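This follows on from our talk about sequence and fold. Go ahead and set the record down below:
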Amino acid sequence: MSHTQNSHPPKLTKTAIITGVSLVLGLFFDYFFYRQVPGINFPLYVSLIVIGLFAISSYSKKQLNKQILWLLLPLTFFSLMVFVHSSELLTFLNVSASLFLLLIIAEVSFKGRVKNFLVSNYIHKIFLPFKFMRPLFLTLRDIFAFRGIRKDKKILSPVIKGIVMAIPVMAIFLLLFSSADLIFQKYLSNLIDINIQPDTISRAILILLATLAFIGAYAYIFRQTEESATPQQNDTPYSVGQIEIAIFFGLINVLFFIFILVQLAYLFGGGNNISAQGFTYSEYARRGFFELIAVAIISFLLLWTTEKYIVKLNKKHTPLFIILSAALIIQVILIMFSAFTRLALYEQAFGFTTLRLYSHAFVILLAFIFLLLLYKILRNLKENTFAFCSFIAIILFLTALNIQGTDAFIARRNIELFAKTGKLDIFYLSRLSDDAIPDTIKLLSLPNEDLRKSFARTLYWRTQNNSASLSKWQSLNLSRLKAAKILKTNMIELEQYKDYQQQNFESAFPVK
């Protein structure tokens, strides 16, 4: 019996092999594809994926299904065609076909036959990557389990687990924070004496995501036979103890607290403090919005996943988890307020656009969903209750946007800003939808003759180009009817400027 047990590799060791192969593929993914167009890199990378599959299979002493050999023929052909042809559409089709074949190979590596697939089976394969999530979490669980550590080391083991769990997450947050905040980046660079380049963040995240994707894929392939043979082994829930949770969320909370202190001292502390660090207030404030939103989204996924799969034991949360998660959610909301403030400062200088308005609204929605998550954790609510409340929140969010009228709001705010600053992107406003016409038509009374004439000319030709396509009853729309009535009333004035030559105005600024 002992001989049989030793003939198979330990679970953690095989998990380490899957993780190592996935990390190599993640690094090569960055090397082959970051800012590169598809070419020879694609068939080479597909070859590495297949080699990784055979390598893990060989080490695990599991015989792969022979039918994947003939699947490798079309896979090789389509991947090579990415190298042969440069047509964008053809390249897209070849890449899609290759990825689809890889998904089929993942499904039939050990069981099943392609010849027995129904139409629905092929359709389901498109959504196969969603099934990689559970094997990914189980594999990460095995990595953090440290099964080789002696049981008598009751304190050291969970401490090491918590630190190892926190390191990659904190690395991502550090990169995002340093990109979002110039002063935080300066402090971090002085502390560790590393010049963080703008590409570092995106490349690190790209490598991490690719690595996790391959861990999930390979784990899905090689766990199929194990789970089908011994399904009872997965019935026992895995838990992370209070020490690991304290270390993991404690370190993240400390990092967030330090970043918030920088925000309080500089973003909300006035321009003098920022000038002392060698930056202008506008230079400091008008960056970092999307990085901070990424921090919020990652934090939400982290909390939701941990609360769902790891911490919740016997349908109750530990007090330690409630305290740490509540602290993290409060700090994330403060960070989102920082992002909201940065975007508001940007809008004060450059005006509103569709992207900026929706970004602002999304911050409010995300903050509300975080509050719902906090309420769920504090009251120990079921997941379906949280999901339903979030669903209602999204419906109300979209309802509010419709009642507000986004394009009309953008037009009104930019015209108000023009009255204060004298700056107006006349070309952007003229291209807003008909929802904005009742507000933008006021620009015909601008004292600036060049801006007024340029707007009238753009609006005239826009009306002429759209009149034919919108004349049919199928295109009937209340907003367009109202706009058409307003334009008809002002058509004489618009027509006299139809041949006006547009100028480059100092008072107009580009949309950024």
User: Anything to note?
Assistant: The radius of gyration is 28 Å. The chain has 23 helices and no strands. The chain has a mean pLDDT of 77.
